[in-house]
Structures are given as structure tokens and as C-alpha cells.
């Protein structure tokens, strides 16, 4: 089962169930600052799973060159200023390499080892020698229990949490903004450092460092 498979709410949905209109309304929450601080000025970036360009736009503003990849034509139609490629991540082969390959949104936590290897192999195939693969991973605490998270503009409820064998967890995420609600059922797998390091090594990458103290952001490099 793919992360995010199955969703409901107004507007178009991506093949994985992600709601296009919801992502169009979402803003960067400091991710661009973290990424910018970790890479060289004017880096070439391959952004895997760019969605509607929530992080693409601020990275372009910061002077980086971004190629934005997503499997959803509806998502890509919202991206402005970057070269876009419609493709599934596991099958992407551009024949080009980049200073940075960026894979956020907990895509690495897909609850299927073979699919995760395909994603990581795409990262390895597209990063320059000496370059960085920057990965955002889910923390075990994030879907540990039902909770409601509220900010100035949005409300997110995590409900129907199921802890499953193999360090997997299923939950329903409901986002509400401006009187509209979108729900999505997700199935993810929390990864130990040993598990992530092992799969990185299998595709020719090594875990180089954590970019945040909580280990949510990882930098890997070619071996």
C-alpha cells in the first residue's frame, strides 16, 4: 500500500490520494530555510514529489535551480518558474545529475521495502559525486496517537491510529482550512537508523549526518 493511498475532499486528487487544492493552499514552514542552509548557494536541485510547488517556489527565490518532479499533472500545473517532469519517482531516469536530490514529505517512510529501494535508487542515480541527498523522514512520535493540531489558518486531526507489525502505522489525517476539509488514510513505516542506513548502502549511498537534532532531516552522500 502506498503512502497516502485513498483520500476525500473537494477538488482533484493525485494518484496517491493527496488533495491538490489542499496543497495549493499550504505554505512553507521553514523547510526552505533548513535546506538552503545545508547546501551551497545556487545549487541545482532535483525535487522528488514536489506537489504544487510549496517548497519549489521559495527555493527558486533563494537562487537555486530546481527541476520539480511529480506523478500528478494536476499538481504540476500549479508549479511556476521551475522545469517540471511528470513521472513516478521509482521509474524516473533523466540521464542528468544534480548537486542536491531532495525527497521530502516522508516518502521514504513508504511501508514497502522494495518501493523504498526504488525511491532511494532514483536518488542515487541523480546525485552528483560529492553531492547531497536530503531526505525528510517521519518520526515515530508523529502518528503515535490521535491528536488535533491547530495553527492560525489550519486544523489537522490525526485519528483512527493503528499500530501494525513491522513498525508500521496507519492513520487518518483530516485537514481543515477556510471551511473546507480533506481526509486521507495513510500507511507508513517508521525506520530505525540501521534500517535506513542499510537501504541507503544498498543503492550506493551512506547516511552522512542529521540536519536537525530530532533526526527528521537526513543528508546522505554517494559512497
From TrEMBL:
GO terms for biological process: methylation. Keywords: Methyltransferase, Transferase. It holds the Pfam family Methyltransf_25. This is Class I SAM-dependent methyltransferase. InterPro entries: Methyltransf_25 (IPR041698), SAM-dependent_MTases_sf (IPR029063). It comes from the Bacteria. SUPFAM superfamilies: S-adenosyl-L-methionine-dependent methyltransferases. Residues 45-131 form the Methyltransferase domain. One of its GO terms (molecular function) is polyprenyldihydroxybenzoate methyltransferase activity. It comes from Kribbella antibiotica.
Amino acid at each position: 500500500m502506498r503512502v497516502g493511498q485513498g483520500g476525500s475532499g473537494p477538488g482533484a486528487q493525485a494518484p496517491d490520494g493527496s488533495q491538490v487544492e489542499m496543497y495549493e493552499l499550504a505554505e512553507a514552514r521553514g523547510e526552505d530555510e533548513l535546506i538552503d542552509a545545508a547546501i551551497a548557494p545556487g545549487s541545482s536541485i532535483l525535487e522528488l514529489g514536489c506537489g504544487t510547488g510549496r517548497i519549489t517556489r521559495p527555493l527558486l527565490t533563494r537562487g537555486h535551480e530546481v527541476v520539480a518532479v511529480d506523478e500528478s499533472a494536476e499538481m504540476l500545473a500549479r508549479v511556476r518558474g521551475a522545469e517540471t517532469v511528470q513521472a513516478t519517482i521509482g521509474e524516473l531516469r533523466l540521464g542528468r545529475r544534480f548537486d542536491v536530490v531532495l525527497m521530502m514529505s516522508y516518502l521514504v517512510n513508504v511501508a514497502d521495502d522494495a518501493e523504498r529501494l526504488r525511491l532511494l535508487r532514483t536518488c542515487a542515480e541523480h546525485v552528483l559525486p560529492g553531492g547531497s541527498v536530503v531526505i525528510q523522514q517521519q518520526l515515530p512520535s508523529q502518528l503515535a496517537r490521535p491528536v488535533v493540531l491547530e495553527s492560525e489558518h489550519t486544523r489537522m486531526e490525526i485519528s483512527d491510529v493503528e499500530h501494525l507489525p513491522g513498525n508500521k502505522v496507519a492513520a487518518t489525517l483530516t485537514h481543515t482550512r477556510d471551511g473546507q476539509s480533506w481526509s486521507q488514510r495513510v500507511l507508513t513505516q517508521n525506520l530505525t537508523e540501521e534500517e535506513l542506513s542499510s537501504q541507503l548502502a544498498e543503492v550506493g549511498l551512506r547516511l552522512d549526518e542529521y540536519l536537525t537534532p530530532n533526526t527528521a532531516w537526513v543528508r546522505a552522500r554517494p559512497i
